[in-house]
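Appendix B, example 12.
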Amino acid sequence: MGDERILKGDANGETNGESLARPEAPGESVEALQAEVARLSQAAERNWQQFLRAAADLENYRKQAARQREEAVASTRRALLAVILGVADTLERALTHAGSAGAADSGGNNAGAAAIADGIRLAHRQVLDVLSRMGVRPMEALGKEFDPRFHDAVEAVAAGECAPAGTVAAEIQRGYMLGDEVLRPARVRVAQ
């Protein structure tokens, strides 16, 4: 039947507008298939590389999000602890003032002042317990060698027997550690 259609067509092998495909030689078909395989292999390799890059980007995003979340929690924690340290400082100052006022008071008001001081002492102890449970501990500064990583020098004083040069002569404000990090450096007077 195919032979009849060719015979009815013109010299170019077309009959009534239809194009007749010339049968390919077996060698040409294999070459076309090999070219198609090569093209598809390149596309598959390109897609695989894009997938690997996307997977790496996703993993980096997850790590970055986790790191940002940890930083936000640590920042909030440090801000909360700074507020609690302010309360502890105020209670310490009240205790210091209550002690000096009680010693100076020679009248019969010592019972009332002592009761107030006991209440402040109890509140101060509770605040320190809360700080301790959160991993905060006070640092010892008095008499230690001055270290700018832990101490904030606010004044220089003359060195003496009790405070050799280069050591902390007095503590103005207590410093605190949070684990191995300095939560707040101690404000100190340094002997020179």
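The longest strand covers residues 151-157. Residues 1-15 have pLDDT under 50 and may be disordered.
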